[in-house]
Amino acid sequence: MNKANFAAHPYLLGFEQLERLMERTAKSGNEGYPPYNIESRGEGRYRITLAVAGFAEDDLSITLENAQLVIRGKQVDDADERVFLHRGIAARQFQRSFVLADGVEVAGAQLENGLLHLDLHQQQPETVVQTIQINRR
């Protein structure tokens, strides 16, 4: 039995990369930590907010890898220096990924009150009309 996909439609040419991107995104899992919000902040403007309580700026890294926004967090575990009677706040690492469409750029990031805000904006594509000449044989 063949796997049906939208990239195999005869009117959609060259969309195989999009199909691979969707498969990669589905496999990333991203579990549930840290929790996050995605807001629309107007025409072509977005904000991703991650709850990263306990993380300092030096514990976080934000990279853009092949149109994929990747946020990583890794805290230094100083448990050897402290004696916990109860440890409910774990020093755990995370990786959260978001796939960005063409033209979406990261405008900035800020950390405040345990929330990491990433502001994104999308450039509006210009309409391009191209005339194709027919070659004579």
Top CATH class of the largest domain: Mainly Beta
* Shape annotation: elongated
**What is the CATH architecture term of the largest domain?**
Sandwich
Q: Structural class from helices and strands? A: mainly beta
**Integer-rounded radius of gyration:** 21 Å
Query: How do the SSEs run, as a string of H and E?
Result: HEEEEEEE
How is this structure best described in words?
This protein is mainly beta and 137 residues long. It has one helix at residues 16-27; strands at 36-40, 45-51, 60-65, 68-73, 94-99, 104-112, 115-122. It has two domains: 1-30, no CATH class; 32-137, Immunoglobulin-like (Sandwich). Helix content is 9%, strand content 34%. Strands 1-2-7-6 form a four-stranded antiparallel sheet, with no helix packed on it. The radius of gyration is 21 Å and the shape is elongated. The relative contact order is 0.19.
